[in-house]
Amino acid sequence: MSRAASKEASATAGGKDAKKTAPPTAKKVTAAKSAAKKAAPVDPAAKKATPAKSVSRKTASGKTAAKKTAPASAASKKAAAVEAASGRKTAPTRTVAPAPPRNESHTALVRRARRINRELAEVYPYAHPELDFENPFQLVVATVLSAQTTDLRVNQTTPALFARYPTPEDLAEANPEEVEEILRPTGFFRAKTKSVIGLSRALRDDFGGEVPGRLEDLVKLPGVGRKTAFVVLGNAFGRPGITVDTHFQRLVRRWQWTAETEPDKIEKAVGELFPKSEWTMLSHHVIFHGRRICHARKPACGACPIAPLCPAYGEGETDPEKAQKLLKYEKGGFPGQRLNPPQAYLDAGGRPAPPLGAG
């Protein structure tokens, strides 16, 4: 082969190799970049930063939802600080912000209502009638006197009344003016004097001086309605009954057990949710809770043991530390309403109330 032919052959071979190793075209570069972009790991911080504006816009527009959500409490902030300092993970604070039951079936309502009662039974195992009494006569008189006043004020007043008039026969013959003077601290003392003397005469004349143990007989006594009758039946005779007082009415409506407003209808509606055997203690649990935590004006929502089950959560104070300061009676370290409470109450840390006139 000539030298010229040899050079031509080399050039031809080099051209073929050049084709093989030639740099990629623009089209291929674009495709390669796209593939690399897909394969590259995504920065989580960058990914979270993108939708932040939309989240804040949603939060700004959802004022109502934000209002119902329980704010981070001081206790939860303290727990987070401890966790950060120690490096150990603490148990998360439960944020309670239940939505009101919508289209709750009757079965679901029964389950929720009974669970609330079970929870309250654990919180108040010592729940009891908060009127001092030693026999059915004292209980029926004290319950009549408790209208439009506190059980505490009645308990401070009845010792003097029963010391002077220990039986229905004694009170039936009492001088109304003397009874009025004793009952003056309870308010509406003239009307109450008329009622307790009248019911004492009825017990003496119609029932042999004994308090009857039947609903239909009790409601015939002056000043005695269904509420008073069920207090007496449940606590003096051990016969189940629902006591629909102001606390009971308020709480069962907050819990959406019923929308009724009349005591008789509330009694019927709530009675259908529970076995009859639970009616008396159910009344004590609800009334205890209404007096201590679920107050009328400012419920202590942040200290409420049944907050996860309550549709009205958020109506009161939700911050745990502030809510703790709203608690009353033994939950807040204050004396209860009875001068002579049951031993179980004292064992649980409850304190008896002071007598009338004590400093």
Walk me through this protein's architecture.
This protein has 359 residues and is mostly helical. Helices cover 55% and strands 0% of the residues. It has 19 helices and no strands. The protein has helices spanning 3-21, 26-39, 44-49, 52-61, 63-68, 74-86, 106-123, 136-145, 151-164, 168-172, 176-183, 189-206, 215-218, 226-236, 246-254, 263-271, 279-292, 320-324, 343-347. Helix 11 crosses helix 12 and helix 15 (246-254) crosses helix 17 (279-292). It is globular, with a radius of gyration of 37 Å. The termini are far apart.
Write a compact overview of the structure shown:
By secondary structure, the protein is mainly α. It is built from 19 helices and no strands.
Topology record:
Blueprint: H1 3-21, H2 26-39, H3 44-49, H4 52-61, H5 63-68, H6 74-86, H7 106-123, H8 136-145, H9 151-164, H10 168-172, H11 176-183, H12 189-206, H13 215-218, H14 226-236, H15 246-254, H16 263-271, H17 279-292, H18 320-324, H19 343-347
